[in-house]
């Protein structure tokens, strides 16, 4: 199974400001310390090997969109599997069109966590939705998913109406507690604490490999015994993608009840569930690359300090990351 992150930012798309790019260049020049490079390839190798991620790259600024690639099993129809339709969907759509031109099935199974704008805003820019040969099934725990997608393309908000889209688009409501064979995976849902409810998804492939997409979910540190349903859901999973929008200090001081969680709570839950890898996700839009990198390092340190059994590998999702399970 492969997991590709096309959008990892929470709430609002963001872009790097020129001052942030300049600061990265300045930090790289200081790190190079007068060294000479024969060509840009050699300089790029130096950047890869020597500079930290916040200097040589960026976590990106597109909102939630994650692709799950799996093969095999009786229901495998060769479809793309996509979690959420945030602004990262635009780039996924272009990439998918190229893969379709090379022979990939023009089928898409979409799984919506919920209907907040940052999770659906990419759909009007999703090129495959204009492909008359494409079939798109939008799965959701919400029966009102179609209403939300149609409403954001009403004339008052957008120039292209939903009815102008040429793909065969259908909606299907899923229920927590059921197991659905869809495409190359079996899918399960869990209802999460969030405004208008959100749903986490567990995808298990034919080999038993498992990835969980659990964003926009508020876990309360003072009610952790009430979180046992999530511990069960996350049990021994290979990869858990978790809403870790805030640092713990932010989440329990000014941002309590905002519907999101911290890195610390996600690590506690994954430890208890004996999950193997955690991806920090839905990054706060006001956090710089340096802020997110600092939170990632603190998360790794916290995981080491609180570990009681097997280690949990804590990674930090960024736009463009592919994880192999
Ligand atoms: Zn969100
Ligand atoms: Zn939300």
Fold and architecture overview:
With 325 residues, the chain is α/β, with parallel strands linked by helices. It has two domains: 2-14 and 59-324, Metallo-beta-lactamase, Chain A (4-Layer Sandwich); 18-56, no CATH class. The chain contains nine helices and 14 strands. The chain has helices at 18-32, 40-50, 53-56, 89-101, 145-151, 228-234, 248-252, 263-273, 289-306; strands at 2-7, 65-69, 80-83, 107-112, 135-140, 168-173, 180-182, 185-192, 198-205, 210-214, 239-243, 277-281, 313-316, 322-324. A seven-stranded mixed beta sheet has the order 6-5-4-3-2-1-14, with helices on one face. The protein has a seven-stranded mixed beta sheet with strand order 7-8-9-10-11-12-13. Helix 6 (228-234) packs across helix 8 and helix 8 (263-273) runs parallel beside helix 9. The longest helix has 18 residues, at 289-306. The radius of gyration is 20 Å and the shape is globular. The N and C termini lie close together (5 Å). The model has no long low-confidence stretch (mean pLDDT 95). It binds zinc ion (2 copies). Residues 114, 116, 194, 216, 259 line the site of one zinc ion.
């Amino acid at each position: 199974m492969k997991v590709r992150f096309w959008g990892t930012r929470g709430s609002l798309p963001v872009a790097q400001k020129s001052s942030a790019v300049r600061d990265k260049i300045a930090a790289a020049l200081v790190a190079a310390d007068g060294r000479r490079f024969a060509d840009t390839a050699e300089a790029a190798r130096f950047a890869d090997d020597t500079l930290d991620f916040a200097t040589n790259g960026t976590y990106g600024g597109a909102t939630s969109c994650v692709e799950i690639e799996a093969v095999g099993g009786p229901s495998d129809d060769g479809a793309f599997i996509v979690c959420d339709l945030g602004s990262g969907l635009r780039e996924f759509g272009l990439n998918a069109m190229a893969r379709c031109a090379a022979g990939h099935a023009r089928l898409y199974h979409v799984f919506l966590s919920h209907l907040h704008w940052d999770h659906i805003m990419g759909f009007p820019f999703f090129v495959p939705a204009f492909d008359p040969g494409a079939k798109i099934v939008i799965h959701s725990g919400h029966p009102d998913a179609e209403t939300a997608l149609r409403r954001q393309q009403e004339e008052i908000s957008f120039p292209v109406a939903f009815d102008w889209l040429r793909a065969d688009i259908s909606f299907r409501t899923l229920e927590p507690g059921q197991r659905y064979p869809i495409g190359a995976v079996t899918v399960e849902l869990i209802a999460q604490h969030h405004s208008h409810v959100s749903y986490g998804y567990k995808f298990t492939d034919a080999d038993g490999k498992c990835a969980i997409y659990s964003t926009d979910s508020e876990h309360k540190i003072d009610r952790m015994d009430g979180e046992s349903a999530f511990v069960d859901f996350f049990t021994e999973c290979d990869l858990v993608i978790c809403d870790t929008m805030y640092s713990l200090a932010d989440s329990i001081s000014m941002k309590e009840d905002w519907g999101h969680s911290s890195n610390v709570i996600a690590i506690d839950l994954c430890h208890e569930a004996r999950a193997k890898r955690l991806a920090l996700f839905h990054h706060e839009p006001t956090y710089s690359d340096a802020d997110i990198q600092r939170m990632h390092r603190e998360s790794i340190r916290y995981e080491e300090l609180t570990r009681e059994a097997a280690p949990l590998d804590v990674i930090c999702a960024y736009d463009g990351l592919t994880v192999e399970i």
